[in-house]
Design a protein that fits this description.
Layout (H helix, E strand, L loop, with lengths): L17 E2 L11 H10 L12 H11 L6 E4 L2 H12 L3 E6 L4 H8 L3 E6 L22 E5 L11 H14 L2 E5 L23 E6 L12 E5 L4 H7 L8 H11 L3 H23 L3 E2 L6 E5 L6 H6 L3 E2 L1 E2 L10 E5 L3 H14 L2
Parallel strand pairs: 1-11, 3-4, 3-5, 5-6, 6-7
Antiparallel strand pairs: 2-8, 7-8, 9-10, 10-13, 12-13
Helix pairs in contact: 1-7, 2-7, 3-4, 3-6
Pfam family, one: Aminotran_1_2
Keywords: Aminotransferase, Pyridoxal phosphate, Transferase
InterPro entries: Aminotransferase_I/II_large, PyrdxlP-dep_Trfase, PyrdxlP-dep_Trfase_major, PyrdxlP-dep_Trfase_small
Length: 348
């Protein structure tokens, strides 16, 4: 059996837990999304629209792009794997640490991955040094903004240089903006730049911003006229259920939901950061709804907290990190209180 390498793996546990390993909107699903999904179940007796026409129109209107630029899939990971299969890259550049599925998708498609290490001493920031790695050796570059698991956003001036260099080198640049709407200053992201950079592909999802990971709904944005069709042909046609499509349309109609969550996340993120640091943890400043921290020499914390009904993400399997690195989501105040209480009991 394959091993599970992400957060949110609650199914193999002995009992219920408070899950800090999955980074999603702490407010949960918007009521309108729940109701839309419930109504759509009644339509499950027929095939969903394989072209996601209504959903693409709703996403396009929300994100300010033509609907033909929108590519929908069964979560962002599905879109990612379709993209890599359609492009067939020889070599791809990823940062380390970052989301593991970029490397998994490239490897599955027969490509090779080059890693650009991010340094803890430099806050795991993507800096201008990455430009030296963007050359004839690679035909695909992945960036996560803000990065997972560090929560660090790419400085605007560095991102601009990467955009220009990739266009000049005719390299496809994939920017994962799945946490954009749960990030300080997220705004429109790079969507307004798509026409200017047809080699740019944006990866987005409703999973985090509207807390619907179980419905599986992600999408990509591209101004390349040939790429949406290539992605469609790279997988089975009915990848997005009618329930997920209805939920996505409803989510587009409540764009304020992520910002309401940020009103909770910002002060709670600050409180968690300060409390962890006061206990001696090394915590990296995050712009997102999660925190990366290190307890030098303290391993096995995930397993110890599980005995108290709290699940956190061990970052031992991230290239560039180690067994004393952990990631936690920022949840509601009373839930964060429970996490901190469990930490006090187990962190000695």
């Amino acid at each position: 059996m394959p091993s599970y390498t992400h957060g949110g793996d609650i199914y193999g546990l002995a009992g219920p837990v408070l899950d800090f390993s999955a980074n999603q909107n702490p407010l949960g699903m918007p009521p309108a999304v729940v109701e839309a999904a419930r109504r759509a179940v009644e339509e499950a007796g027929r095939y969903p629209d394989s072209l996601c026409r209504d959903l693409r129109r709703a996403i396009g209107a929300r994100d300010g792009v033509p609907p033909e630029w929108v590519c929908c899939g069964n979560g962002a990971a599905d879109v990612l794997f379709r993209l890599v299969l359609a492009l067939g890259p020889r070599r791809a550049l990823v940062t380390a640490p970052t989301f593991s599925e970029y490397e998994s998708a490239v490897t599955a498609a027969g490509g090779t991955v080059l890693r650009h290490p991010l340094e803890a001493e430099r806050a795991f920031d993507v800096e201008r040094s990455i430009l030296e790695a963007i050359d004839g050796r690679v035909d695909l570059v992945f960036l996560c903004n803000p990065n997972n698991p560090t929560g660090r956003a790419i400085p605007g001036e560095v991102l601009e240089e990467i955009l220009l260099l990739c266009r000049e080198q005719e390299i496809c640049l994939v920017v994962d903006e799945c946490f954009l709407r749960l990030c300080d200053g997220g705004g429109e992201g790079l969507a307004p730049r798509l026409r200017e950079f047809p080699n740019l592909f944006l990866l987005r999802a409703f999973t985090k911003s509207h807390a619907i990971p179980g419905l599986r709904l992600g999408y990509g944005l591209t101004a390349d006229p040939d790429l949406p069709g290539a992605l469609y042909r790279a997988g089975q046609p009915w990848s997005v259920s009618n329930v997920a499509q209805a939920a996505g349309i409803a989510a587009c109609a409540c764009p304020e939901w992520p910002e309401r969550a940020m009103e909770v996340i910002r002060p709670e993120r600050r409180r968690l950061t300060q409390t962890l640091r006061a206990r001696g943890a090394r915590v990296w400043e995050s712009a997102a709804n999660y925190l990366l921290f290190q307890l030098p020499g303290v391993t096995g914390l995930k397993e110890r907290l599980l005995r108290r009904g709290v699940l956190i993400r061990s970052c031992a399997n991230y290239p560039g990190l180690g067994p004393d690195f952990y990631r936690i989501a920022v949840r509601l105040p009373e839930e964060n209180d429970r996490l901190l209480a469990a930490l006090r009991e187990e962190w000695n």
